[in-house]
Design a protein that fits this description.
This protein is α+β, with helices and mostly antiparallel strands. It has 2 domains: 3-45, no CATH class; 56-139, no CATH class. 20% of the residues lie in helices and 27% in strands. It has helices at 7-10, 26-45, 136-139; strands at residues 70-71, 81-88, 93-104, 107-116, 126-131. Strands 1, 2, 3, 4 and 5 form a 5-stranded antiparallel sheet that branches. A hairpin with a 4-residue loop joins strand 2 and strand 3 (93-104). The longest helix is centred in the first third of the chain and has 20 residues, at 26-45. The two termini are 52 Å apart.
Length: 140
């Protein structure tokens, strides 16, 4: 323990860099934090281009049972509608998975649909719909 306080013994355990550099003053640290927060806020204010009306991105799945639902779009113009597809030519697998956050008046719903492309039966294609009330966080 006491030997590690001597440089010749502590050199093996030291990390590269200036560890003996004094901490900045609180006022300097707060100033740096404010600058970092300002940059973060500036990045958050950047909006995406507006989504055109009638876009496929804004279309609610036809199996969604509540009428008048719209895809939720946040302040940064992110539409909460996602689709994935998995295709393997060697085995003939062609699957899809759709996720949507849908808003009806003040209620948020999470809708998901999955299955195989080209199949219309209930065995290979299915969907689920979850209502989350006014809680957007639980729907996401």
């Amino acid at each position: 323990g006491l030997l590690l306080r001597q440089r010749k013994y502590a050199a093996y355990y030291l990390v590269e860099g200036d560890l003996l550099k004094p901490f900045p003053r609180v006022s300097e640290a707060l100033k740096l934090q404010k600058e970092a927060d300002a940059l973060t806020k500036a990045k958050m204010k950047v909006k995406r281009p507006a989504i055109k009306a009638g876009s496929a991105l804004l279309k609610v799945d036809p199996l969604f049972s509540v009428k008048g639902g719209k895809i939720y779009v946040d302040k940064q113009r992110n539409a909460y509608n996602a689709s994935t597809q998995f295709t393997d030519i060697s085995t003939g697998i062609n699957k899809y998975y759709n996720l949507q956050v849908i808003q009806t008046n003040t209620t948020f719903h999470f809708f998901t649909r999955w299955g195989r492309l080209g199949a219309d039966d209930k065995v290979t294609n299915d969907y689920r719909q979850y209502s989350h009330g006014q809680s957007l966080k639980s729907a996401i």
